[in-house]
């Protein structure tokens, strides 16, 4: 069954059809939430909330890109989680990222050596720390663009912002992350260090 | 001047570098950036590090999904029984509230009428009154003596209670006037004697008690005076007050009690009048209603709690 048929069935209240859509999009939704929130548990909560909200609101879906519509719901769920975290700050954001991102297992190549895996983990941590320093709007734009690979237009649709706003948010986010990675340059493995030309 | 223009151009281009990387600039903007890059080493450097950053982000491996996020039908579509249970809960709660209010009203009514029963039922054995009266009187005296003058309101309150007792006794007296005198009810002790005195100002028809062996009754007499004075401003007529004063005093002094109540007879085997019998029947009925309502409230409350718990589990 194609996506449109599944969406139509889901609009008629067919949970099975909706769950097929969930299976198709849950990795994208969870990864987006994980990169925005930097915390596996919060990302899982946001993803589950997003799919529940999506099923409840699927009657209001008026066509267009289902992916962008769903991503918008996921980003809204992430905003809710960020607000929740701000209300109940457990510890500093950096410590939170280091502590809580550890249990999440990145998908690795089967042939990857343990050293390579460790190096990737280090890069992952450094990038996550950098993303954590960004304001939520810039974080979302950066993750949607450079982690999820969405076009400017798709990001505008998913965030409800104009193209110009997406451009400037992304420009600032990349600039700040670059500065953060340059600061952590000595901590990064040599192949991932930012180098001057 | 040229420096400022150059700086502003540098900043603008720096802001466009990100979009330049993605090929999201218009041909005009792209040409402008390339023109600037040809003469600005800083911007070339910025572009290089930005490209590296984007490349690193792109190399991030996707994280594994910890579990399936497939939704279950239960949290979205509520079970049909749940709605009914919610409605049952609402009704049960309302019924419990109504039953509780009814019970409260019935209990209040009970307390009110039971409180009035001694005054509504006229024929009571005089011994009972005789025993009750001094006890209440002693309480009044203690209050008056302890609180002295400032507690006027308290004194008035106590006096009202006494008045009721007094009225009852007066009724007894009237009944007794018709009956033959058999024997004095209370044995008088010769320790005190009550002598009528000319009524002082602010006191009507009271008895001034002259204690022979003990000086304490003076204080009691003061209390009695206060009590009599407090009775005066109420709606009681003057002669009634006089009677009240006369009857009132003896409760403190056994001698006076004997003097006033001497004509009171002991009714031989007092028969329960039909009004009293009806009253008792009503009282029993009332109690039955109370017990029934209490059981109803308990049953409803338990049922409400059970339904609520089930609803929460569901």
Give structural notes:
Chain A contains 9 helices and no strands. Helices cover 72% and strands 0% of the residues of chain A. Chain A has one domain: RNA polymerase sigma factor, region 2, helix turn helix motif (Rna Polymerase Sigma Factor, Chain: A). The N and C termini of chain A lie far apart (51 Å). Chain A has 197 residues and is an all-alpha fold. The longest helix of chain A is centred in the first third of the chain and has 23 residues, at 15-37. Chain A has helices spanning 3-11, 15-37, 40-57, 66-87, 93-101, 114-132, 136-147, 152-159, 163-183. Chain B has 314 residues and is mostly helical. Chain B folds into 3 domains: 2-58, no CATH class; 78-121 and 278-314; 127-261, no CATH class. Chain B contains 11 helices and 2 strands, in the order H-H-H-H-H-H-H-E-E-H-H-H-H. Chain B is rod-shaped. Mean pLDDT of chain B is 64; it is low at 122-270. At the A-B interface, helix 2, helix 3, helix 6, helix 7 and helix 9 of A face helix 1, helix 3 and helix 4 of B.
The secondary-structure element order of chain A is HHHHHHHHH
C-alpha Rg of chain A, in Å?
Answer: 18 Å
Task: Specify Rg of chain B, calculated over alpha carbons.
Answer: 47 Å
Instruction: Give the strand order, joined by hyphens, for the main sheet of chain B.
Output: 1-2
The chain pair forming the largest interface, with residue counts per chain, is: A-B, 51 and 36 residues
Q: Which key features would you list for this structure?
A:
heterodimer; A: 197 residues; mainly alpha; Rna Polymerase Sigma Factor, Chain: A; 0% strand; globular; B: 314 residues; 11 helices; 69% helix
């Amino acid at each position: 069954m194609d996506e449109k048929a599944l969406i139509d069935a889901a609009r008629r209240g067919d949970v099975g059809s909706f769950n097929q859509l969930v299976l198709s999009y849950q990795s994208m939704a969870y990864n987006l939430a994980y990169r925005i929130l930097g915390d596996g548990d919060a990302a899982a909560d946001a993803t589950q909330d997003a799919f529940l909200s999506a099923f409840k609101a699927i009657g209001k879906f008026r066509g267009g890109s289902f992916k962008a519509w769903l991503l918008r719901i996921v980003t809204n769920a992430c905003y809710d989680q960020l607000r929740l975290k701000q209300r109940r700050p457990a510890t500093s954001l950096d410590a939170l990222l280091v502590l809580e991102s550890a249990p999440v297992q990145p998908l690795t190549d089967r042939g990857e050596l343990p050293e390579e895996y460790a190096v990737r983990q280090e890069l992952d941590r450094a990038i996550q720390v950098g993303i954590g320093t960004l304001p939520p709007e810039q974080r979302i734009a950066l993750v949607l663009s450079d982690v999820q690979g969405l076009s400017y237009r798709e990001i505008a649709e998913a965030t409800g912002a104009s193209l110009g706003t997406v451009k400037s948010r992304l420009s600032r986010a990349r600039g700040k992350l670059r500065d953060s990675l340059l600061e952590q340059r000595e901590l990064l493995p040599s192949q991932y260090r930012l180098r001057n030309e | 001047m040229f420096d400022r223009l150059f700086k502003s151009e540098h900043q603008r281009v720096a802001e466009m570098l990100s979009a330049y990387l993605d090929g999201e600039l218009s041909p005009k903007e792209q040409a402008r950036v390339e023109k600037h890059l040809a003469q600005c080493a800083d911007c070339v450097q910025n572009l290089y590090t930005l490209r590296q950053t984007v490349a690193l982000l792109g190399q991030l491996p996707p994280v594994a999904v910890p579990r399936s996020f497939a939704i279950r039908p239960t949290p979205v579509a509520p079970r049909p029984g749940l709605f009914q249970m919610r409605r049952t809960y609402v009704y049960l709660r309302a019924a419990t509230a109504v039953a509780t209010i009814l019970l409260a009203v019935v209990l209040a009514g009970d307390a009110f009428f039971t409180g009035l029963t001694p005054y509504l039922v006229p024929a009571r054995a005089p011994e009972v009154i005789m025993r009750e009266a001094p006890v209440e009187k002693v309480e009044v005296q203690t209050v008056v003596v302890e609180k002295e003058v400032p507690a006027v309101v308290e004194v008035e309150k106590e006096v009202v209670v006494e008045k009721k007792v007094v009225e009852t006794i007066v009724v007894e007296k009237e009944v007794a006037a018709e009956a033959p005198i058999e024997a004095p009810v209370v044995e008088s002790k010769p320790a005190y004697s009550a002598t009528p005195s000319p009524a002082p100002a602010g006191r009507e028809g009271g008895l001034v008690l002259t204690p022979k062996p003990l000086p304490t009754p003076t204080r009691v007499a003061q209390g009695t005076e206060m009590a009599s004075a407090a009775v005066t401003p109420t709606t009681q007529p003057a002669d009634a007050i006089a009677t009240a004063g006369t009857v009132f005093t003896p409760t403190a002094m056994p001698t006076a009690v004997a003097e006033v109540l001497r004509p009171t007879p002991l009714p031989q085997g007092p028969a329960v009048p039909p009004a009293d019998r009806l009253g008792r029947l009503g009282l029993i009925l009332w109690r039955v209603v109370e017990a029934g309502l209490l059981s109803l409230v308990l049953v409803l409350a338990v049922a409400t709690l059970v339904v609520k718990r089930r609803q929460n589990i569901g």
